[in-house]
Each structure stands twice: as structure tokens, then as C-alpha cells.
Design goal:
179 residues; alpha/beta; 6 helices
Length: 179
């Protein structure tokens, strides 16, 4: 029975979510949230991060699940590429900050912060709530937000494997158009 529940949960995390409500050119909702980087808690503020350059805001269902761990690892491995293009990354989930303290170290390799959205105010403002059987979880959606607060790219897919490459490609395209 436990295997059946686990398999059902894992399958739900891989279902392709509906496209995000925010489209290219839309204003990305500003937010602040408790976050962790390298196991250290702080308050993440999107507006402050955007002053430094574009920000990838990516939503993931649950820390320490297979796909979410692999996605975090992929973002961690690519963080220097994002930085070289002037961007930063923040992951957002419904997980509590204590869980994210561990996740930021073990799966994010101390490379980028992850934010806790227990009341779902961020997920709701970005239309990233999974709904269905798991309404407390986030859909797997990535947004690239320009320094002016506008959405540059949106990618929504339950399969974690293309989020990093899609955001890097969008970022490179945007960067090329800045010159």
C-alpha cells in the first residue's frame, strides 16, 4: 500500500501542469519570503534581487522528491552560467524553512536560495498551485523575470529536465538583445 501511495504521488509530480497564468511581458508579482542559502535563513526580496539583474523564479512541488532534487542539482550545476549572463535563481516551494535549510545544502549545493511559501501567496500570485489531489504543492513552472519586473520567459512542464536549459536559452536571447 505504501508503494502504491508513493507511486501515485510520484506520478502526480510528473504530470504536465497547465501553463502558467503569467505570460511574456506580464508584470511578475513582487514578493518577499523566508529563504535558505547554504542552510542559513534570510528574507529573500524579489525587488532587491532584480536590482542586480534578471531572476529565474522556479517553482517545484516538494523538496527531496526525486524530480525536485534532480532539478535543484541541475540549477546548481548551471549557476555559473546564469551568473555569467547576469542572472540569479530562486526556487520556491510549499516546504517549511527547516526542510529548505537542509535542501539548500544537500540538493542545491549551497549555490542558490530556496524560499518557503507555506501560505501559498507566491504560488497563487504566479498561478503555480498544483491543485487536484495535491493543492498544497506547486506546479513545476519556471519564470525568467527582467530587471524591470516583466516576465521574459515562462516554461511549464512537470518534467524537470528542460527547465534549466530553457531558462538559460531565454536569458541568453535577452542578453543578446541588450547590446
Amino acid at each position: 500500500m505504501k508503494r502504491l501511495i508513493a507511486a501515485t504521488f510520484a506520478a502526480a509530480l510528473c504530470i504536465a501542469p497547465a501553463a502558467g497564468a503569467l505570460k511574456v511581458g506580464d508584470a511578475a508579482p513582487d514578493f518577499t519570503a523566508p529563504a535558505s542559502l547554504g542552510g542559513k535563513e534570510f528574507t529573500f526580496a524579489l525587488a532587491a534581487a532584480l536590482k542586480q539583474g534578471p531572476v529565474v523564479v522556479y517553482f517545484y512541488p516538494k523538496a527531496f522528491t526525486t524530480g525536485c532534487s534532480l532539478e535543484a542539482h541541475a540549477f546548481a550545476e548551471a549557476i555559473e552560467k546564469f551568473a555569467a549572463l547576469g542572472a540569479s535563481v530562486i526556487g520556491v516551494s510549499h516546504d517549511d524553512i527547516m526542510t529548505l535549510n537542509n535542501f539548500s545544502v544537500e540538493k542545491c549545493a549551497n549555490k542558490f536560495p530556496v524560499a518557503s511559501d507555506l501560505d501559498q501567496h507566491i504560488m497563487k500570485s504566479y498561478d503555480a498551485v498544483m491543485g487536484g489531489a495535491y493543492p498544497e504543492l506547486a506546479n513545476r513552472i519556471s519564470y525568467l523575470v527582467a530587471p524591470d519586473g516583466r516576465v521574459l520567459a515562462e516554461y511549464s512542464n512537470g518534467d524537470y529536465s528542460k527547465h534549466v536549459d530553457t531558462m538559460l536559452a531565454a536569458l541568453a536571447d535577452w542578453k543578446a538583445g541588450q547590446h
